[in-house]
Specification:
Order of helices and strands: EEHHHHH
Strand order of the largest sheet: 1-2
Structural class: mainly alpha
Number of helices: 5
Radius of gyration: 14 Å
Helix content: 40-55%
Shape: globular
Number of strands: 2
Length: 110
Amino acid sequence: MTNRWTGEVALVIDGTSHVLKLTLGALAELEEQLGEASIVSLVERFEHGQFSSRDVLALIVAGLRGGGWQGTATDLLAAEIQGGPVEAAKAAGQLLTRAFALAPNEAVDG
């Protein structure tokens, strides 16, 4: 069971359900790995459907690590993701969306 308001996303890999979450540390690692100055450009690529499989894999790895997983991208190269590349891309997009979403009872102070 995942909590979308804390940024969690579920993904089944090799028959095991994993909880993914983009923590601050996972986001920083992701920026460094993808050579981004900020996460905004990655979000924009997803919003415009211009993301790469490298982006999806990096997000999945960052989310897994944020959820406590100790593996690396290499560990996922031969992994079977339930739903295939489409489900992986969907999970990656949800990770980005949920990482910056406010809970319904929260407001941004202006």
